[in-house]
Amino acid sequence: MLTAAAYIRVSTDDQLEFSPDSQLKVIRDYAEKNNIALLEDCIFMEDGGKSGKSMAKRDRFLELIALSKKKPKPFDMILVWKFSRFARNQEEAITLKSMLKRNGIDVVSISEPLPEGAFGDLVERIIEWTDSYYLVNLSQEVKRGMQERASRGLPVAPPPIGYDSKDNQYIPNADAQYIKGIFTDYLNGLGLRAIAVKYGDLGMRTTRGNMPDNRCIEYMLRNPVYIGKIRWSLDGRAASTRHYDNPNIMIADGKHAPIISEELFNAVQDKLNAQKRMYGKFQRREQPVKYMLKGLVRCSECNSTLILINAKCPAFQCHSYAKGSCKVSHCISLNKANKAVIEYLEETVKNGQFNVSSTNSDSVPEEYANYSRLIENEKAKLNRVKAAYQNGIDTLEEYKQNKAKILENISKFEKLLTKTPSPKINANEYSKKVLGVLKVVKDPKQTEAAKNAALRTIIEKIIFIKRENKFEIYFH
């Protein structure tokens, strides 16, 4: 007698479907009529509405696939109410079904019987394509409707802090009293974390009832809803995205009352952008600065930040080397590093040749500007394939192959990124700016924090090339 597992899912993208209990009932009836033993410990039912667009968030589905890859095979088939319950992504469906067939397991839709032979395979592909098209078309229709609402100034997301939603409109509430204070405090020099603590103590809470944190405050400071605008993007993700410079974001005049002025909002945006240029990822402005080059110097081998390793005889060392993951020591005394950087700046002013970084420049062609984002995407893929291996979805061999391919792409994009053309600048104007910074860093009366802040106004990063014992400075 043939044995079977069952997979049951109710999604949020289809209102005309059976409930989980109803799906299980018809699957049991099908198994009984066709002399198939449905294994009670192999009934996998998703909790709540889960989309078939991807298997990533379907925990029970991942358990089923992991079990199906075991040898000898634990059952002969997987019964589903419809093929769309298994997957609505055609590419994913074909890949998974092929993998299951290699282990002798078929996916059977009890409500979509297939004819025998090659014609049955064709019908199955057509069904998969139809399911995939339904999902894509539904998504496009929803996005189109949301974009239309946004263009008319109507809310397209739950109300942010400071507003309630009433009669399809944002209405300022009691928390609006905090908004102007947050914008003003940031403009006056208070840091994101300090603002979060201050207003959390005053009683402000997030829309989920939690204490605010620095990310929450930054999101608020970036949100044009507070000047009476509605923000949406052509990809339908502007309500949650933190890519504030995304060219696809649409800003429309809203129907709701603003809480702050445009002048205050724009001044805050200018300061946020300046801080973003000065302090890179994982570099916090509010951390104490005890030496001039803190957070600016990078390892030429792995791009990790060089940190201070000896308080009595101060020296820099690669953070990853100190942890054992980088293989090349980048140790250099603090005094030598300070002296070398100052000499580099003085020489750069003399020859007028500035190695300007293209990371934040609008003058760089789009194909170059996208490489950084492509690298981040590949790194995210690397995490996903690792998770697939750890969850038993992929074998060790599959994980190695996927990892090698992703690392190859990262290497390719990094090489292309290094070939990015430097944007043109006014050398005379930039020389004056560098001279002003040199005046600060060479002044013994200035604090290390003041010198660090001055350097960050012109420097994006400093690469220490240990093998050649030299520094390369990349300017904003």
Characterization of this structure:
There is one protein chain. The chain is of the alpha/beta class and 476 residues long. The protein is built from 16 helices and 14 strands. The protein has four domains: 135 residues, Resolvase, N-terminal catalytic domain (Rossmann fold); 127 residues, Alpha-Beta Complex (Hect, E3 ligase catalytic domain fold), CATH 3.90.1750; 117 residues, no CATH class; 53 residues. The strands form five sheets. A four-stranded parallel beta sheet has the order 2-1-3-4, with helices on both faces. The protein has a three-stranded mixed beta sheet with strand order 9-13-14, with helices on one face. β5 and β6 form a beta hairpin. It is globular. About 2% of the residues have low confidence.
Report the sheet with the most strands, covering strand number, pairing sense and barrel closure: 4 strands, parallel
Output mean pLDDT: 79
Level-1 CATH class name of the largest domain = Alpha Beta
> What is the CATH-assigned architecture of the largest domain?
3-Layer(aba) Sandwich
Could you list the spans in which at least 5 consecutive residues all have pLDDT below 50? Answer: 360-369
Number of helices: 16
Q: From the alpha-carbon coordinates, what is the Rg to the nearest angstrom?
A: 29 Å
CATH superfamily of the largest domain, called what? Resolvase, N-terminal catalytic domain
Q: What is the number of E strands?
A: 14
